[in-house]
Specification:
The protein is 28% helix and 19% strand. It is an alpha+beta fold and 98 residues long. Strands 1-5-4 form a three-stranded antiparallel β-sheet, covered by helices on one side. The chain has a two-stranded antiparallel ribbon with strand order 2-3. Strand 2 (66-70) and strand 3 (73-77) form a beta hairpin. The protein is elongated, with a radius of gyration of 15 Å.
Amino acid sequence: MIHYRPHGNEIEVFRVAAARKLPVLLKGPTGCGKTRFVRYMAEQLGRPLITVACQEDLAAADLTGRFLLEGGATDRKSTRLNSSHLVISYAVFCLKKK
């Protein structure tokens, strides 16, 4: 069980965003509790959590997929993380749908 003490209305904001499938950006200094909060919310919502360590050369399309032109047609290339995941946080956290 993950323990988290709210500091404002972040839990309600996160729940509404998750219900509406909206992304949430969490930004703060190292050690301020971003990861703990996301782990707590994943547990509360009963959703598995995927964390991705971001590097300088990582692009959003590496996580969400991209559109490529092939022979005059546009083809969407998916990745393991796609639009069915809720992408959250500056360091990129994803809550998978069950």
